[in-house]
């Protein structure tokens, strides 16, 4: 763990736990870096809108007007940050947003909201459930 000097006090990096394991500062930074590019952010938001079914890579490329090889590189970055998961369906690869990872990132970012005073629990996003529109 690294130490940071803030306001004359020494603070240790804190480890954050989520359903799938551990959310540390490095993992949060990887997620934020992956989402910091416009095409990747739009791809991720598109996949969130299509949960829980997901979308084939070709449909994502068409929706975003991005060449498939370019999209593949973007999806690889999102996959490495564990923000998206993929599964083969015949000849297509279907991508889905990892909502548990998104929830862990949101909890990580809001962990110290309200100056640690009593407020909404850090996992208040966990009540969001995606349901199929059909």
Task: Describe the secondary-structure layout.
Elements: E1 3-6, E2 9-12, E3 16-18, E4 21-23, H1 25-35, H2 38-49, E5 55-56, H3 57-64, H4 68-80, E6 84-89, E7 92-97, H5 99-110
Helix pairs in contact: 1-4, 2-4
H/E element sequence: EEEEHHEHHEEH
Which of globular, elongated, flat, extended, rod-shaped describes the shape? Answer: elongated
Strand numbers in spatial order across the main sheet: 5-7-6
Our count of domains comes out at: 1
Termini gap: 47 Å
CATH architecture: Orthogonal Bundle
By secondary-structure content and strand pairing, the structural class works out as: alpha+beta
Regions with pLDDT < 50 over 5+ consecutive residues? Answer: 1-21
What's the count of strands?
7
Number of helices: 5
Main sheet record = 3 strands, antiparallel
Quick overview:
It is built from five helices and seven strands; from the N terminus they run ββββααβααββα.
Tell me what you see in this structure.
It contains 5 helices and 7 strands. The chain has 134 residues and is α+β, with helices and mostly antiparallel strands. It is elongated. Helix 1 (25-35) packs antiparallel against helix 4 (68-80) and helix 2 (38-49) packs across helix 4. The protein has helices spanning 25-35, 38-49, 57-64, 68-80, 99-110; strands at residues 3-6, 9-12, 16-18, 21-23, 55-56, 84-89, 92-97. The N and C termini lie far apart (47 Å).
Summary keywords:
alpha+beta, Arc Repressor Mutant, subunit A, 42% helix
């Amino acid at each position: 763990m690294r130490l940071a000097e803030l306001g004359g006090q020494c603070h240790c990096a804190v480890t954050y736990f989520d359903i799938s394991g551990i959310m540390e500062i490095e993992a949060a930074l990887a997620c934020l870096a992956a989402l910091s590019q416009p095409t990747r952010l739009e791809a991720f938001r598109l996949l969130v809108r299509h949960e829980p079914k997901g979308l084939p890579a070709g449909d994502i490329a068409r929706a975003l007007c991005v060449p498939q090889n370019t999209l593949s590189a973007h999806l690889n970055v999102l996959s490495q940050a564990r923000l998206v998961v993929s599964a083969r369906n015949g000849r297509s690869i279907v991508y889905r947003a990892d909502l548990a990872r998104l929830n862990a990132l949101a909890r990580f970012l809001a962990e110290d909201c309200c100056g640690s005073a009593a407020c909404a629990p850090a996992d208040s996003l966990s009540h969001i459930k995606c349901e199929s529109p059909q």
